[in-house]
Amino acid sequence: xxxxxxxxxxxxxxxxxxxxxxxxxxxxxxxxxxxxxxxxxxxxxxxxxxxxxxxxxxxxxxxxxxxxxxxxxxxxxxxxxxxxxxxxxxxxxxxxxxxxxxxxxxxxxxxxxxxxxxxxxxxxxxxxxxxxxxxxxxxxxxxxxxxxxxxxxxxxxxxxxxxxxxxxxxxxxxxxxxxxxxxxxxxxxxxxxxxxxxxxxxxxxxxxxxxxxxxxxxxxxxxxxxxxxxxxxxxxxxxxxxxxxxxxxxxxxxxxxxxxxxxxxxxxxxxxxx
Length: 274
Prior knowledge:
CATH superfamily of the domain at 58-188 and 234-268: Vaccinia Virus protein VP39
Number of strands: 8
Number of helices: 9
Strand content: 15-25%
Strand order of the largest sheet: 1-4-3-2-5-6-8-7
Order of helices and strands: EHHHEHEHEEHEHHHEE
Largest sheet: 8 strands, mixed
Shape: globular
Structural class: alpha/beta
CATH class of the domain at 58-188 and 234-268: Alpha Beta
Helix content: 40-55%
């Protein structure tokens, strides 16, 4: 197991290259949730706290909440989008390592995997599953990693917790090798009223309530309630696809699964031999 701490100055900084960066407005995955934090600048502190406090309950809650199908689905999705032995994987917003653990089964070990997450609590759980992986405590918008270092980049149900989709996706493009793949797994609120109502009933009410029953933890219940709030407020899929294109990805696609799951995939232009 290898570890690193947050590096606040990304290696591709415009200042290091000797010219000024253009000003870009952040692309928020959802508006600030003022019941939890006042503005987007306070979001990272709140998100880290909520996941640090709920980390010990995360795996069992996610396991039964998705009816025990999560592990097989994650592995299936990674395989369908091209992950195979010999590749180097970067798992961003890795959390407790659920996507990374599925990837390790495909790759044959966790040694080619780097897990990045801002939550110490979540990474502490992930370390127990992935003995040989590299762990880095950092956010998606400033990855302390070299250019063109990975063949595949995954994000599992976490893009809603980013501070800036545009900045994150540009970082993803930078650290992927030419021909590399990005795969974002996400839960998406249905656009039709009936589907949206059922989605709200389960994720907004039933799931958080059962979390409290099974864990006895108000913090775990809050974590799952926050999941719902971010899904409810998240930008629509078209905006996510547009931001991936804006980050210079090609072959940008969204695959819908079981009416509520989205697989966003894209490629960095070029050949893997470059």
